[in-house]
Design brief:
Helix content is 50%, strand content 16%. With 219 residues, it is α+β, with helices and mostly antiparallel strands. It has two domains: 67 residues; 145 residues, no CATH class. It has a five-stranded antiparallel β-sheet with strand order 2-3-1-4-5. It is built from six helices and five strands.
Length: 219
């Protein structure tokens, strides 16, 4: 019986030893798998962060490339107007002008469906003259004729922007093939409204702007 008991004890001890070794081995394998999984997850997270960072960077670069700059409005000849008001229809603008005797030399200029009441149009901001009743203020804008197919119309922004106003002197009744056929007649009519070259320029521009949609105005 003692021999059997000793054999059983040895078997039990051996079973416990083997079980412990197997258990430790299993724990080691589990920890190894867990660590590998964690490292893989961290690597994926790192790659995802880097990818998102690059994506955001590219997105920001694209946004920066497509943001329009204020300089875009200067494509064309630059002018300054003395503005008294702006209306959604011609009748309201005309009624406003008729209510103020000081606007007798003003012009109504239609731009993108709105009607602007301007009292003068200058090439140099320092030349602007403002009214007190009704109060006027500066309106800067550019005129482009890039889409005008007729050469004489395409030439208008440059002619109007000439600081010497060489071709805005209609007293000499000069003929110029580079200008519209009715240039002299329109200029003479504008000169009858005022002797001020900045008012004459305004009325000439208002006339040709109303007849030629290709003359683009940007504020």
């Amino acid at each position: 019986m003692k021999i059997v008991s000793q054999v059983m004890k040895k078997q039990i001890f051996r079973a416990m030893f083997i079980g412990g070794v197997v258990g430790l081995f299993g724990v080691a394998i589990f920890l190894g798998v867990l660590q590998a999984s964690t490292q893989f997850s961290l690597k994926n997270d790192s790659n995802e962060v880097a990818s998102n960072s690059n994506s955001n960077s590219n997105s920001n670069n694209k946004d920066a490339e497509t943001i329009p700059t204020a300089g875009g409005a200067t494509n064309g000849s630059m002018f300054f107007a003395s503005q008294a008001g702006v209306y959604s229809n011609y009748e309201s603008a005309s009624s406003f002008v008729s209510e103020h005797p000081s606007l007798k030399e003003s012009a109504i200029v239609e731009i993108d469906g709105k009607f602007y009441v301007w009292t003068s149009m200058v090439t140099d901001e320092s030349q602007l003259v403002f009214l007190k009743d009704p109060a006027t203020f500066k309106k800067a804008f550019s005129v482009s004729s890039d889409s005008c197919k007729e050469a004489t119309i395409a030439e208008l922004p440059s002619v109007l922007a000439d600081k010497k106003a060489t071709k805005l002197n209609f007293k000499d009744n000069l003929k110029d093939s580079t200008l519209p056929a009715d240039w002299q007649a329109i200029g003479t009519a504008a000169s009858s409204i005022s002797n001020d070259i900045n008012v004459i320029r305004l009325h000439v521009f208002a006339h040709y702007k109303s007849k030629n949609a290709c003359l683009q105005v940007k504020f």
